[in-house]
């Protein structure tokens, strides 16, 4: 278990696992006959956190990729990479940052590997997703949430 250096604060990984994975190739075997493979890739990332018990949270990074070639869907991959994390001794803002950014950063390489593996098992070239800066994504989320609150006049 990884722990922070501060004695009353804990941030650790209890378990990493694939919660769900699917691969679909609706146009195979025709999709294998493309002369030149020049895919268009649509990526959708989402995350979800659930308080399990005590200081344990389940965090799920969902990756959905739709790969098209010449306006035809070659394949779709969906991976829900999950982890159980122990988070204790942090205030709400710090805890939300850990759940929304740091846990995603930990889960992403596992999701990336699963996506690549599924694309190869489906008969296609390996699909390697580019790294994602989850710190920046989290900050954008906070800014968007702040802007929405400002528009609606909701309390901060």
Question: Would you mind describing this structure in some detail?
Answer:
Helices cover about 30% and strands about 40% of the residues. The chain has about 160 residues and is of the alpha+beta class. The chain has one domain (about 10-150): SecB-like (Bacterial Protein-export protein SecB), CATH 3.10.420.10. The chain has a four-stranded antiparallel beta sheet with strand order 1-4-3-2. Strand 2 and strand 3 form a beta hairpin. Helix 1 crosses helix 2 (about 135-150). The protein is globular, with a radius of gyration of 19 Å. The chain starts with 9 loop residues before the first strand and ends with a helix. The model has no long low-confidence stretch (mean pLDDT about 90).
Q: Topology, please?
A:
Layout (H helix, E strand, L loop, with lengths): L9 E15 L15 E14 L2 E14 L2 E17 L3 H30 L12 H19 L4
Antiparallel strand pairs: 1-4, 2-3, 3-4
Name the features.
156 residues; alpha+beta; Bacterial Protein-export protein SecB; four-stranded antiparallel sheet
Short recap of the structure:
The protein has 156 residues and is α+β, with helices and mostly antiparallel strands. Helices cover 31% and strands 38% of the residues.
